[in-house]
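Appendix B. Raw example, untouched.
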Amino acid sequence: MWFGAGRARFARWFALASSVVVFLLSLALLPGFDTHTYAMQFVERVAWIPQFGIHYHLGVDGISLPLLILTTFTTVIVIVSAWEVIQEKAHQYLAAFLIMEGMMNGTFAALDAIVFYFFFEGMLIPMFVIIGIWGGPRR
């Protein structure tokens, strides 16, 4: 299961299942979202580097929630469309794409500039790998 074609098959199903779960979790935010306020909602704040006033601070508002839902939905579509197209190192492609999805979601939910920078720059690494390995001839 962990080698050869079995690894790619497992990676495809794992990526699809995890991306569908993340999409459903993003949809689960909708019923609890109050559209009558401009305040940030579903806020999480944890001291990260308190000496410098840096906190792991996430939340969503009326702009970031649709972007989160769109990102998670697009990830499901990408994984389904790459099912048979990506044959070479499929497990690495899917892992890079799931990491990129997590970083994009963090970018949209970040409420601290350092956390935003971390997620935004972290998103570029798997994107660079995906373009460099699986991109077209004019990448």
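End of appendix B.
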